[in-house]
Amino acid sequence: MTVKPSTSHLRVFSHFLDSVGQEPFRRSGVAEQLYPLTNPRSQERADAIAQALIGDAAKSGQIQRHGHLHWMRVTRGRALKSGRSVPELDREVVLTTSTRCPGKWASVDLETGEVWVADDVGRWKRAGEAALADLKVAIGKGTT
């Protein structure tokens, strides 16, 4: 059975992927969510639509096989200097620090190794030699 998924089928599939997160899932789980939207109502049609949606998502790199029957969402990630990988989110996150002494704070980009320090008005600027020396002492790598 050849079917073309509708916009509502795509929305249901996208919502399904969001709900399972990083857990493995089966085509039958997708078909179960699609079943109420099939017209005429048919489990076979829901399964065919699920197969088409999964095939398209796999081709576009959104999901990948996870064993024989399971699929899993592909996460984008960043490789840190240590070799560890961390997930990249679909949205930006604002990190805030409230302090009366901004000069004591440093931020390290673990992907690039860049070190940033706060100025007196709360803006981040690249760390100079003095701030890098302070950082080495703070993490125990400097001379005491």
Write a structural description:
The protein folds into 2 domains: about 5-75, Arc Repressor Mutant, subunit A, CATH 1.10.10; about 80-140, no CATH class. Helix content is about 35%, strand content about 15%. The protein has 4 helices and 8 strands, in the order αβααβββββββα. Helix 2 (about 25-35) crosses helix 3. The longest helix is centred in the middle third of the chain and has 17 residues, at about 45-60. The model has no long low-confidence stretch (mean pLDDT about 90).
In short:
This protein has 144 residues and is α+β, with helices and mostly antiparallel strands. It has helices at 7-20, 27-34, 43-59, 129-138, and strands spanning 25-26, 63-65, 70-73, 77-79, 85-87, 106-108, 115-118, 124-126.
Task: Please name the defining characteristics of this protein.
single chain, 144 residues, alpha+beta, Arc Repressor Mutant, subunit A, 2 domains, three-stranded antiparallel beta sheet, 34% helix, elongated
